[in-house]
Design brief:
Helices cover 70% and strands 6% of the residues. By secondary structure, the chain is mainly alpha-helical. The protein folds into two domains: 10-196, no CATH class; 207-273, no CATH class. A hairpin with a 2-residue loop joins strand 1 (207-214) and strand 2 (217-224). It holds the Pfam family EIID-AGA. This is PTS mannose transporter subunit IID.
């Protein structure tokens, strides 16, 4: 794949900023916003890769699974565009590694700052004015919300591209890409690890009866299998289920993901019925 000879300008970045508003129209259960990401970054890719074959490869590269917060999508989009523009053919894999590493943390940050903090604040301000009979309340809420909503998207688009270009140009390519890939992989693994510990809940109620003899007296007790697992490593069963599922998906290249979900649901019902899980 040939390297870029075309630098993106503000007009190209505005095209990306405009298309962010329609990213969710192609939401699907296979790649979530993957198609939307590809559609949004397409103007930049068309400028970077005038060759149709190179453009096709680049668009397919960005059609993979993606999901983050819309207020931070712009930064990831334009940082990916900056990497497309400056990296060589053997460094393109690091672009999706960067996207994977950033989309989870940025999604959590956007939810906590925009949805959980800013929206309730401006909503309470608008509601208090509306309850007082002031028709300006809903209008004020709309204005205040979109200062952060729209302003944040635009800032992320231009900040992500220009800062990304500065970083990549001021560092040697091989060193910069290596550092970005390492940071993205570390952050991605941290997010996945946190999700396994907080979302995947697997435990067993199995208990064993234990008999012991002390001073010719027989005492009976029970030992919980789950407590033994917890002493070895808390969340051991959850980790085991996750690792087995990952290995199966990796072995089959994800072709039988739906079948795996159905089988796991059936296993959960059966094992729960027999009080194994």
């Amino acid at each position: 794949m040939s390297e870029s000879k075309h630098k993106l300008n503000n007009k190209d970045l505005w095209k990306i900023a405009w298309r962010i508003n329609f990213m969710r129209l192609t939401l699907n259960y296979e790649t979530l916003n993957g198609v939307g990401f590809m559609r949004t970054i397409a103007p930049a890719l068309a400028k970077i890769y005038p060759n149709k074959r190179d453009l096709s490869e680049a668009m397919n590269r960005h059609r993979v699974f993606y999901n983050s917060h819309i207020n931070f999508d712009g930064g990831i989009l334009t940082l990916a565009a900056a990497m497309e523009e400056t990296t060589g053919p053997d460094e393109k894999d690091s672009i999706n590694a960067l996207k994977t590493g950033l989309m989870g943390p940025f999604a959590g940050l956007g939810d906590s700052l925009v949805k959980m903090t800013w929206t309730p604040i401006v909503g309470s301000i608008g509601a208090s004015l509306a309850f007082a009979g002031n028709v300006f309340g809903p209008i004020l809420m709309f204005i205040l919300y979109n200062i952060v909503n729209i302003g944040g998207r635009l800032y992320a688009v231009f900040f992500g591209y220009h800062k990304g270009m500065d970083f990549l140009k001021n560092n040697q390519h091989s060193d910069a890409i290596k550092r970005i890939s390492t940071m993205a992989n570390v952050v991605g693994l941290m997010v996945v690890g946190a999700l396994i510990a907080t979302v995947v809940k697997v435990s067993t109620p199995i208990k064993f009866a234990v008999h012991s003899t002390i001073s010719n007296k027989i005492s009976t007790g029970t030992i919980s299998l789950q407590s033994m697992f917890d002493k070895i490593m808390p969340g051991l069963l959850s980790l085991a289920v996750t690792v087995v599922s990952y290995l199966i998906l990796k072995k089959t290249n994800g072709k039988h993901a739906a079948l795996l979900i159905v089988i796991m649901m059936a296993l959960v019902v059966v094992l729960s019925y027999f009080k194994i899980l």
